[in-house]
Q: What sequence folds into this?
């Protein structure tokens, strides 16, 4: 376990911290894509210039194993600090190295310089010093912010009397800030928890400021800002402005790399950014996978995931590496366990017609959504991709959506629901009702039969109105 703020938490401590934080999670549709909020190029260029060993996928693969990744981050960061400490001690930090170090710092410390109006609140990330609250008081006295909100309990590794938020609140009052203009949150343990518990408080009090100025140390600003973007719910979009506070000289842009303490504190922020994404994915996948089952185990026929078949891979030029990067460790279709009984009842209904369902797709990761939509866009155009994929809510991501086909229980062959030669529009409800040939009538009959079987058993058509896609909305 850590004893001071220059260290990164080890895995067991990290999991203990997370278990003590707010239970708020990143929305399912944002878990994997949140890695795109981060730019590791400045850090990677520094590692390569110093010839520090690392795996590029450690920073670039959204599905990198959490336990392996956390250990590797700690190792790479310690090797980087050791090398820079040695070079600094020997006065061997050259101009190119300073340029790379400045790029790292500038990325972490990016702020918004222009204040064009009065903002609803200044949000202060808790700290043991007064530098952050001093900046908030300055903005308050200038009329830039209407209220000050302070979030912070105390560091997990440190037991002190009073919370940071309470101590800083009293300090602000002594500096002339009206007590009614200060809001505090006193339970947050970490930077992500500052954001999570604040959003919890907003929801509890039905208080949604529309403009927020984030106030924290320069080296912490990137991680602070990223956590706000990560945890904001999709129905709440305040204007967020970044404003750096003052900083101790040892952590300034021109001095941070000259001491081991400065190196650890600043570089920790870069590595924590990646570590937090690793744990977001880990927690999400642990939650999802505990509810996923193979429908074949319950007598419900399913093939391998449709996007992994030889036909799909050839048609859309999908490679093994692309599937692996999309997080597929199995090509078996998995669905939420609560869909099993409803789908069994669907088959019981269809048996009267000598038919049964066959599942073509179930749980689909966010990365697989992105890959599939990209491949369809490349082959059929952006319009077709937008027609076929709901990249906003990503219904398959819950495991509670399925793509199904019909097969004959007599011949064990597929009963087609549409003709692929008629284009992708033929896969939507109502397409064949404008035609009166026997083929079209057969398609309409089968589509309606499948729809009836699914709808009476707790499913509904998806937002795209595809003939094969159904979302489960029954009680679970």
A:
């Amino acid at each position: 376990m850590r004893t001071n703020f220059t260290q990164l938490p080890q895995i067991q401590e990290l999991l203990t911290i997370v278990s003590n934080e707010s239970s708020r999670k990143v929305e399912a549709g944002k878990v994997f894509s949140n890695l795109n909020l981060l730019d590791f190029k400045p850090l990677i260029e520094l590692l390569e210039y110093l010839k520090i060993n690392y795996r590029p996928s450690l920073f670039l693969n959204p599905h990198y194993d959490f336990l392996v990744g956390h250990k590797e981050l700690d190792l790479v960061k310690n090797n980087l600090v050791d090398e820079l400490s040695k070079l600094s001690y020997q006065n061997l930090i050259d101009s190119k190295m300073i340029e790379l170090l400045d790029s790292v710092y500038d990325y972490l410390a990016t702020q918004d310089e222009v204040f064009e109006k009065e903002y609803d609140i200044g949000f202060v990330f808790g700290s043991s010093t007064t530098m952050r609250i001093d900046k908030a008081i300055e903005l308050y006295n200038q009329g830039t912010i209407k209220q000050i909100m302070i979030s912070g309990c105390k560091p997990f590794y440190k037991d002190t009397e009073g919370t940071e938020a309470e101590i800083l609140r009293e300090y602000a009052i002594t500096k002339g800030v009206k007590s009614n203009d200060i809001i505090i949150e006193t339970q947050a343990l970490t930077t992500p928890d500052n954001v999570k518990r604040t959003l919890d408080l907003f929801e509890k009090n039905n208080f949604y400021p529309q403009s927020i100025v984030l106030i924290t140390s320069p080296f912490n600003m990137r991680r602070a800002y990223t956590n706000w973007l990560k945890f904001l719910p999709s129905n709440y979009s305040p204007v967020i402005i970044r404003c750096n506070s003052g900083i101790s000289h040892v952590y300034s842009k021109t001095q941070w790399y000259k001491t081991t303490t400065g190196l650890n504190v600043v570089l920790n922020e870069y590595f924590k950014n990646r570590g937090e994404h690793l744990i977001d994915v880990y927690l999400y996948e642990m939650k999802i996978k505990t509810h996923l089952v193979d429908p074949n185990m319950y007598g419900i026929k399913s093939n391998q995931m449709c996007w992994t078949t030889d036909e799909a891979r050839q048609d859309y030029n999908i490679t093994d590496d692309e599937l692996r990067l999309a997080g597929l460790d199995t090509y078996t279709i998995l669905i939420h366990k609560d869909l099993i009984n409803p789908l069994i009842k669907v088959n019981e209904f269809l048996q009267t017609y000598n038919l049964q369902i066959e599942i073509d797709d179930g749980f689909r990761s966010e990365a697989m959504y992105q890959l599939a939509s990209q491949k369809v866009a490349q082959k059929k155009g952006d319009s077709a991709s937008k027609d076929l994929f709901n990249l906003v809510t990503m219904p398959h991501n819950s495991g509670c959506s399925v793509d199904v086909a019909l097969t004959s229980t007599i011949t064990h062959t597929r009963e087609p629901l549409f003709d692929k030669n008629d284009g992708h529009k033929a896969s939507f409800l109502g397409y064949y009702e404008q035609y009166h040939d026997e083929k079209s009538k057969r398609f309409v009959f089968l589509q309606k039969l499948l729809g009836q079987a699914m709808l009476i058993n707790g499913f509904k058509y998806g937002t795209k109105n595809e003939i094969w896609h159904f979302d489960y909305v029954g009680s679970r």
Summary: The longest strand covers residues 401-408. The chain has 16 helices and twelve strands. The domain at 119-246 is CATH 3.40.50.620 (Rossmann fold).
